[in-house]
Design brief:
Strand content: 35-45%
Mean pLDDT: 81
Strand order of the largest sheet: 34-35-36-37-41
CATH topology of the largest domain: Methylamine Dehydrogenase, Chain H
CATH architecture of the largest domain: 7 Propeller
Distance between the termini: 91 Å
Number of domains: 5
Radius of gyration: 37 Å
Low-confidence stretches: 1-8, 678-713
CATH class of the largest domain: Mainly Beta
Shape: flat
Structural class: mainly beta
Oligomer: single chain
CATH superfamily of the largest domain: Integrin alpha, N-terminal
Number of helices: 3
Helix content: under 10%
């Protein structure tokens, strides 16, 4: 017995005496040549990835009698039939006809690092059958983003470029053992080195107790291990003040050594500048209790003058008050991370402190002692890092995350915590910027005292935004020893980076907000950007193309066919094989053809990707009847004036040119005054041919020829 209760499915019942009935389902939806089909494809047959996913259009086509019941399609009845990121959704559905529709995809930009397989389930109430239908699958390719990097122009062994960084309006100041580097972003979004400062020719900068701050026209460098020599006991520390000159370069203006510093005070191990106020930490001053020094710019003398010396009330040995400092406007924070001494737990200190002050109307005011509400162990080192922006304060810990505080009238209270998950460990470095009701935060991984960190974290928090992104790299780079943040990017130091094949030369990673970067994921698919086609090139000349290779983080091969390349700005050229494994500017060159209207080709191969660079020579100027061609100039080979009474004015001749059609050209004109050589070569004599005057009374008394604007003349 065959029973078909509804169209699209059925059931066959086999009956036999003394036997239990046997049921065989028959599925007309999925089986057989008349099966019901719903196919899914990508509009225009493009390959979907994170870059083109938002706004992408998917085509749904029904076949084998399957149809939509009407022209009103509800997007809620079209759902993804696979576990895909929540950042991908169906924005709308457009009815095309009874068997066709289009889905518009929305993607909020949240990064995903694994490819996505996508199916669509169509609900039964949109179809002319008794059940829903599922489409085939399509793939969405994850893009492994590669951040930008900042490198010194002179990568140096063991320089540790990046052990401290600070930013101001996309200008980046970076400390290295061999100097202070200033980079600025160019019109192409790349960071170019504009200055290198070497504070002392005698000593390298310390990688442990030095700091940098940049704000407006001032740059502050703190040397926490400066040895005062006969005037001190050693390692007191020193601060250098640099001011920008009219050429945009920083020049040394002032050196500060606070009076009364104890031995190994490490004055300058932390510094921060905002407008006319400078805060300097000396975390080991006064038997390791620590102190902070507040300076203000005297606009008359141009010097920063000490206004206050701050200490922790009832300070104790190893408080390390001033281990980190931060200032914004007239408000500043001093961290006191309280390093424990064996046998002295100092339970009353809890997990450490941060102290909040203001300096208004030339008066210091203590506002609040900041503590972590849920920490009690000194090993948490609350206060190891601090930052402030507007009314918002962030205080880091050694491995328990970061705590947010907000100013309320004359105090501040905790209003949030950024807590790491089980496999995360951040808070050792913090940076915050509050702008337009959004908090931009960068956090460095804590690691351990003798281990290199491998992760950095960014947070973007607002009334309707709460993003967290993770930057992962390998341990050899030492990621996030220092961090800084602005409205668009987070900056992570990588002092042990060796991208330039120099041991521990260092780098700074620039990570865009909202992007996760996993540099442990191998990405060898290069993006080759640059001008690839040049036209109207002279014959038999060297042609140079500028390009950039990006979007890779693993080693790839470079080869070139029919040309040469340079990776040092054109100083040296080669056609030999080499390898690269990070973003690289490159020049390509070849010789143009010796023939007119002919192209020369050079192929640059980067891993699996190739780019062809083409130069095409200019077209040959063919001499037409009634014309004479000299170089790039075409002349009319007819004498119109023989002298005597038939003289014409310059304007009359100009009118003649504008109405002339000859050799398929309409843009004829009179010779310019600077074409004397061409005129003489033709033996054409023109009165005052070198004179720029072209008045109405100018008269041509001798034969003349006309010149076309052919070939951009």
């Amino acid at each position: 017995m065959l029973r078909i209760p509804t169209w699209g499915g059925g059931e066959l019942t086999i009956k036999a005496t003394d036997y239990v009935d046997s049921f065989v389902p028959i599925n007309f939806i999925d089986d057989g040549q008349y099966a019901i089909r719903a196919s899914l494809s990508i509009y225009n047959n493009i390959k979907l990835n994170e870059g083109n996913l938002n706004g992408a259009v998917l085509d749904i086509n029904l076949s084998n009698y399957l149809e939509f019941i009407d022209n009103t399609l509800d997007s809620s009845n079209f759902v993804f039939a696979w576990d895909i990121p929540s950042s991908i959704s169906i924005d709308s559905v457009n009815y095309i006809n009874a068997t066709s529709a289009q889905l518009h995809i929305a993607y909020d930009g949240t990064d995903f690092d694994n490819n996505v397989t996508l199916y669509i389930d169509i609900a039964q109430n949109e179809l002319n059958i008794c059940q829903g239908a599922s489409t085939n699958s399509i793939d969405i390719e994850a893009v492994v983003e590669v951040p930008k990097y900042i490198y010194p122009d002179d990568p140096t062994k063991d320089a540790l470029f990046g052990f401290d960084i600070d930013t101001d309006n996309e200008k980046v100041a970076t400390l290295a053992r061999n100097g202070i580097y200033i980079h600025e972003k160019d019109v192409n979004g790349e960071y170019q080195q504009v200055q290198k400062i070497v504070p002392s020719e005698e000593n390298n900068i310390s990688a442990d107790d030095a700091s940098i701050s940049i704000d407006g026209e001032y740059l502050i460098y703190g040397d926490g291990i400066f040895w005062a020599g006969e005037d001190g006991n050693g390692l007191e520390g020193k601060v250098y003040i640099y001011k920008m000159d009219v050429h945009g370069l920083y020049q040394l203006e002032q050196e500060i050594v606070a009076s009364g510093l104890s031995s190994s005070a490490h004055f300058g191990a932390s510094v921060d500048l905002s407008d006319d106020l400078l805060i300097v930490g000396a975390y080991n001053d006064d038997d390791h209790k620590g102190a902070a020094y507040l300076y203000q710019l005297n606009v008359d003398s141009g010097d920063f003058e000490q206004k206050e010396r701050l200490t922790r009330p009832d300070g104790k040995e190893m408080d390390w008050f001033g281990y980190d400092v931060a200032i914004d406007g007239d408000y500043f924070v001093v961290g006191s991370m309280s390093f424990p001494i064996v046998g002295d737990d100092k339970e009353e200190l809890g997990a450490g402190f941060a102290y909040y002050y203001n300096y208004l109307s030339d008066s210091l005011e203590f506002m609040a002692e900041l503590k972590a509400s849920d920490l009690s162990s000194l090993s948490d080192h609350f206060g190891i890092s601090v930052d402030i922006s507007s009314d918002h304060i962030i205080v880091g810990t050694y491995h328990k995350g970061a705590y947010l505080f907000k100013r309320e009238f004359d105090t501040a209270s905790e209003n949030g915590k950024l807590a790491p998950t089980e496999d995360e460990d951040f808070g050792h470095q913090v940076s915050i910027l509050y702008s337009d009701l959004i908090k931009y935060i960068a956090l460095g991984e804590s690691g351990s005292w003798n281990m290199l960190s491998t992760k950095g974290f960014t947070f973007v928090q607002g009334s309707s935004t709460n993003q967290k992104n993770i930057i992962k790299t390998n341990a050899e780079d030492g990621l996030s020893k220092s961090v800084s943040v602005d409205e668009n990017f987070a900056y992570f130091s990588m002092p042990y980076n060796e991208d330039k094949k120099v041991y521990h030369h260092g780098a700074v990673m620039v990570a865009e907000h909202g992007q996760s970067y996993n540099l442990d994921v191998e990405d060898t698919i290069a993006y080759i950007n640059g001008t690839r086609d040049l036209i109207d090139v002279e014959l038999d000349v060297t042609v140079v193309f500028d390009a950039e290779i990006s979007q890779i983080n693993s080693e790839v091969n470079i080869t070139i066919v029919a040309g040469e390349y340079s990776m040092d700005g054109g100083s040296t050229w080669t056609s030999s094989y080499t390898t690269i494994y990070t973003t690289q500017s490159i020049k390509i060159r070849h010789t143009s053809s010796v023939d007119y209207s002919t192209s020369a080709f050079t192929t640059l191969n980067v891993g699996t990707q190739s780019a062809i660079f083409t130069s095409t020579t200019l077209a040959e100027v063919v001499e037409a009847e009634g014309t004479v061609t000299v170089g790039d100039l075409m002349w009319e080979d007819t004498a119109h004036v023989r002298g005597g009474e038939n003289n014409v004015t310059w304007n009359q001749a100009d009118t003649y040119c504008k109405g002339l059609e000859l050799a398929s050209y309409y843009n004829w004109r009179l010779p310019h005054h600077n074409y004397e050589e061409e005129i003489n070569e033709l033996g054409t004599i023109m009165t005052d041919s070198n004179d720029t005057a072209t008045g109405e009374d100018r008269v041509i008394n001798e034969p003349f020829v006309l010149i076309t604007a052919n070939d951009d003349i």
